[in-house]
Structures are given as structure tokens and as C-alpha cells.
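Severity: low
Component: inverse-folding endpoint
Summary: output formatting inconsistent between runs
Steps to reproduce: submit the following C-alpha cells with default settings.
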């Protein structure tokens, strides 16, 4: 987004709200988030009541943006700083918000991006990596009680990056491939990456499970990808190497964010981030 446009939208709470509402309702046509009925009654407090199921809702009900209780102006500021790829600490210095609030808002943006992925159902949900729990107006991604660590496969095809879950692969299987079939592996802390495997340019995962004893890592963390590696793999590994304290449950959010950034590298990520943030939180089982 051009700076002058940003300045226009950030001018007041109502201009910021108007910008975000564009992504919520097509042609201002509101409908009930529960039953999709268009007919509704406006209430005196600004909310609406569905004429069919009597559900009371407002413009952001059920959407990612409803999380964290931020003003629309603060959301636009956060989207801008996220767009600039700043750390939460650096964003916190720019805003009059508590560190935890900024952290939760950025996690919400990351969830909105990850939830739009085709394989989102494979890592969101009760038996998956991340469970979304709601308490009042706060939605927090929680490590699932039955945490299963997903293994991602990285591919780049004609400049488009894919970092998708590889069905049926677990970290133990990759360790086994390394020990018995010579698949090269390297790691930084809990994050592991492999040499090309089948159609993937690399396998990637983050796990708290310790590797088998006496396992030797053959890929150097300082120079993780081969010279012939596609740009995305270099970009991805370089970014992950710099992250501090990556946890297995948040790992899918980070890799999906990096895929999003890479695939939108020539586009306006501001409006795309706003669009995803204004979409409804999907129901994951
Ligand atoms: Zn309804």
C-alpha cells in the first residue's frame, strides 16, 4: 500500500474501520455469521439481530480481527508493521500497546494466514499441532494435548513456493531415513532440515523429541542449502535460522507465514493480510 493511502486510512477510527469493513461484507451486504440469513434488525448499540435464528452479531463477529480487542487504527498499524516484517519487540517499540497484546495480535495474523492454507486442517484442530481455544473475546492457539509434530515438504515451482505437510511422515521416520538410507540432515536446536527427498527440495520440522543417540548431522547449519537450491529454500532456511525459540506447536504458523511472504513478494501484502484477518475463523474439528 502506498504511504499516502495508508495515511488516509489511518486518519481516524472511522476511516480505518471503513477500510477493514470492505473485506468483511461484499457491497455492504451483511448476513448472519451463524445461518447466513441476510434479514436482520439493527439494535441500539450498533449490533444486529438475525431475523431467522436471533443470533446477535456485529461486523467483526466470528472473524480473526475480533480477537485481541484492538481499535481499527491499531489493527492497521499492526498490519503495516507486519508488512514491514518487524519482530514483535520492534513493533512493540512503535506502538502504545502492551508487549503481550502485540504478540497476540501478530499470532492472530499468523493464524489467519495459516488457516487459509489448503492443508490447514492437517495442523489445526484437537488432535493436531495447534488447537484454537476461545475465552471471551480472546482466541488463543494452544499446543494440542495430543501434539503430533507435522513434517513439511518444501517445493518451488515456477517461482511459486509450497511448504506443505507431508502426509504420513513423522520426525522419527525422517531420522530413520537418515540413519538407514543416507538422507542428509542438519538442525538448529529443535528445527531439522533435510537434503532433497523425493519430489521435495527439503523436509522440514520442529520437534521436542530428541533424535536417536549417536545420530550424526551431515548438513552444516551455517550453510544449510546446496548451491543449486531454489530461492525459496534459501530464503526459508535463512529466516528460520534467525528465529529464536521456535516451538513445535507454532512452527506451522511460521513456515506458512514465510510461504505467504515469499509468494506475495511482488504484491501488496498489506491488503492481502487485511483480507485474511477479516475472514471468518474456520471451524476446525
Ligand atoms: Zn442467523
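Observed output (run 2 of 3):
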Amino acid at each position: 500500500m502506498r504511504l499516502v493511502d495508508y495515511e488516509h486510512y489511518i486518519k481516524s477510527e472511522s476511516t480505518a474501520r471503513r477500510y477493514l469493513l470492505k473485506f468483511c461484507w461484499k457491497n455492504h451486504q451483511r448476513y448472519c455469521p451463524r445461518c447466513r440469513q441476510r434479514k436482520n434488525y439493527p439494535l441500539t448499540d450498533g449490533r444486529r439481530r438475525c431475523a431467522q435464528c436471533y443470533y446477535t452479531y456485529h461486523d467483526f463477529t466470528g472473524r480473526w480481527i475480533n480477537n485481541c480487542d484492538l481499535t481499527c487504527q491499531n489493527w492497521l498499524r499492526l498490519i503495516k508493521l507486519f508488512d514491514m516484517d518487524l519482530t514483535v519487540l520492534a513493533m512493540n517499540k512503535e506502538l502504545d500497546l502492551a508487549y503481550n497484546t502485540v504478540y497476540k495480535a501478530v499470532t492472530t495474523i499468523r493464524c489467519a494466514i495459516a488457516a487459509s492454507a489448503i492443508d490447514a486442517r492437517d495442523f489445526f484442530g484437537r488432535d493436531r499441532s495447534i488447537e484454537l481455544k476461545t475465552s471471551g473475546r480472546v482466541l488463543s492457539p494452544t499446543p494440542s494435548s495430543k501434539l503430533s509434530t507435522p513434517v513439511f515438504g518444501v517445493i518451488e515451482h515456477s517461482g511459486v513456493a509450497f511448504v506443505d505437510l507431508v502426509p504420513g511422515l513423522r520426525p522419527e521416520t525422517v531420522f530413520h531415513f537418515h540413519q538407514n538410507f543416507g538422507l542428509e540432515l542438519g538442525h538448529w536446536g529443535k528445527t531439522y532440515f533435510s537434503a532433497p527427498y523425493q519430489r521435495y527440495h527439503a523436509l522440514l520440522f520442529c520437534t521436542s523429541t530428541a533424535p536417536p543417540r549417536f545420530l550424526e548431522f551431515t548438513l552444516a547449519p551455517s550453510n544449510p542449502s546446496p548451491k543449486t537450491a531454489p530461492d525459496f529454500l534459501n530464503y526459508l532456511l535463512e529466516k528460520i535460522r534467525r528465529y529464536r525459540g521456535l516451538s513445535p506447536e507454532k512452527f506451522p504458523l511460521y513456515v506458512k507465514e514465510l510461504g505467504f511472504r515469499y509468494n506475495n513478494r511482488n504484491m501488496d501484502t498489506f491488503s492481502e493480510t487485511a483480507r485474511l484477518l477479516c475472514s471468518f475463523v474456520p471451524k476446525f474439528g
